[in-house]
Design brief:
0% strand
Amino acid sequence: MEKAEKKRLRNQYRQEQRLAAFDALPLPLDQLNAMFDMLDLMLREKGCDHTRRFTQTWLTERRHNLVAVFGWLDTVNGYCDCQVRTNVKQHVEEAAKAGA
């Protein structure tokens, strides 16, 4: 297999992975980005206590399905607020490239 073909297949696979990740997002991108902005602020002010208290409050105030969102967060290494801000945000940014 030629180098160009390998690159094309690798890029195709990467795009398919992004599309699958994008389709699995539990909330629209604008809502996820608003949540990340809130976490940036709250974690700067109060730090992380290794729970998802800020995430939970934000989701509850907006009447989002906690069970569904927390289940998804567990699959993308978002076990506390600081991990949601870093790991999950990075995952969402990569998934968003599917639509770019």
